[in-house]
């Protein structure tokens, strides 16, 4: 049976709360209650001691990176523990991480993402305007007799192909950045060769860039090269 991996993110508003654990235990209980009943494992936990008005959250950035590394969802006890800012939620939608809220269990999968987009209304409006302009441009091009077909019904320009390659390179670079702390920790533990790192990454169940379950030394070397 496949064990679902989750990364947990908690936030307390004051350093006094962070030191005493006030509010933290309740958040952990909410997360465990949300995950109850399935085959799951929290692979990492991150606690932020911050003000909800600030958007520079180092622990959240680490949590998002860990979620991308393990290719698992980020689970938060309550929406207001993450943010009350619409703009911040918009940026979160672009982080490439599936976010779950224990107090809103219906926010999951395509329906959940739609609900998050409703909460982040500014981002939704912008996306809608871009979509409308794109459809209008395609309709105008078709009306002028421009052929829109090609491979699988889409004819990509050289600029579009270049943009696609650039986006793929950006994703590979971000993955390398996310994995850099993991590889650095392995080196500190005396695991320095690419083959040894590949074996440990495989044993820990960290997926490869394409979602594979087994790492090779060459893949590790590529990650190291991109992260430098």
Describe the secondary-structure layout.
Blueprint: E1 4-12, H1 15-20, H2 24-35, E2 40-49, H3 58-70, E3 74-76, H4 79-82, H5 86-93, E4 99-101, H6 109-119, H7 121-143, H8 158-188, H9 194-203, H10 217-226
Helix pairs in contact: 3-8, 5-6, 5-7, 8-10, 9-10
Describe this protein's structure.
- By secondary structure, this protein is of the alpha/beta class.
- The chain folds into two domains: 4-121, Rossmann fold (3-Layer(aba) Sandwich), CATH 3.40.50; 155-228, no CATH class.
- It is 56% helix and 11% strand.
- It has ten helices and four strands.
- It has helices at residues 15-20, 24-35, 58-70, 79-82, 86-93, 109-119, 121-143, 158-188, 194-203, 217-226, and strands at 4-12, 40-49, 74-76, 99-101.
- It has a four-stranded parallel beta sheet, with helices on both faces.
- α5 packs antiparallel against α6 (109-119) and α9 (194-203) packs across α10.
- The longest helix is centred in the last third of the chain and has 31 residues, at 158-188.
- It is globular and about 60 Å long.
- The two termini are 37 Å apart.
């Amino acid at each position: 049976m496949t064990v679902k991996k989750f990364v947990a993110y908690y936030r307390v508003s004051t350093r006094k709360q962070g030191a005493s654990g006030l509010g933290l235990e309740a958040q952990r209980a909410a997360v465990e209650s949300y995950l109850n009943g399935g085959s799951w494992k929290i692979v990492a936990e991150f606690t932020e001691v911050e003000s909800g008005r600030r958007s520079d959250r180092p622990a959240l950035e680490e949590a998002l990176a860990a979620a991308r590394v393990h290719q698992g969802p980020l689970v938060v006890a309550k929406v207001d523990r993450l943010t009350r800012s619409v703009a911040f939620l918009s940026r979160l939608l672009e982080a490439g991480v599936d976010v779950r809220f224990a107090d809103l269990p219906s926010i999951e999968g395509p329906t959940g993402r739609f609900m998050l987009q409703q909460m982040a209304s500014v981002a939704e409006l912008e996306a809608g305007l871009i979509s409308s302009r794109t459809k209008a441009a395609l309709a105008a091009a078709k009306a002028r007799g421009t052929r829109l077909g090609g491979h699988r019904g889409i004819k990509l320009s050289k600029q579009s192909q270049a943009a696609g390659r650039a986006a793929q390179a950006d994703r590979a670079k971000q993955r390398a950045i996310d994995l850099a702390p993991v590889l650095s920790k392995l080196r500190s533990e005396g695991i320095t060769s690419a083959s040894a790192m590949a074996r440990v990454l495989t044993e820990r169940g960290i997926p490869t860039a394409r979602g594979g379950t087994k790492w090779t030394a060459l893949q590790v070397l590529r990650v190291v090269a991109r992260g430098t």
